[in-house]
Structures
1.
Amino acid sequence: MIIGALQPGNAPASVLPTAAAAAAELTTVEASDLALVKGSPRVTVRFTADDAEQAVGIGRRVIEATRTVADPVSSVVTERVQGSWVAIR
């Protein structure tokens, strides 16, 4: 997710834990990261899912939870296919 403005009263440090915790409610979180990409903060939460449908549902939950602390400007759910990350929605 590319992150925009914070919701009032929320610290920047709250975004990544909020996103990762939302995924952890539903599945195993393998990794989470916050990076600056082309000047914009990007949150990545890598998690396990049985199939694309489940992954998209978990991704939606992560976005909903993130909206409580910040504005997700854009997002994509990807899967690993033969060594590359490919969008599934």
2.
Amino acid sequence: MLKKYSIPCFLLLLVGFLALNPELALAQAGSFDTKVSSLTNMIVGKILPAVAVFGLVYAAILAATGDESSKRRMVLVIVASIVGILAKFIIPMFQSAM
């Protein structure tokens, strides 16, 4: 009986908590432009390089184990990393155009 109501109760508590804390709910307590730019900076500055490094390590491990498709994956990871690094310059160019 307790398991039946545990998920709805948790969701109700979560919604209530986020309603009382608009910053955690990503509500517009501040200006929307600053939130979007900070989110973009976080993705481009922290998450994208970490994913690129993990992708390169994964492709290198596959190459070390003798996987035949590892060269293709490594090229794709390098191309995606270059696009991710260039995103720091591409995104402001699109933002200034709007």
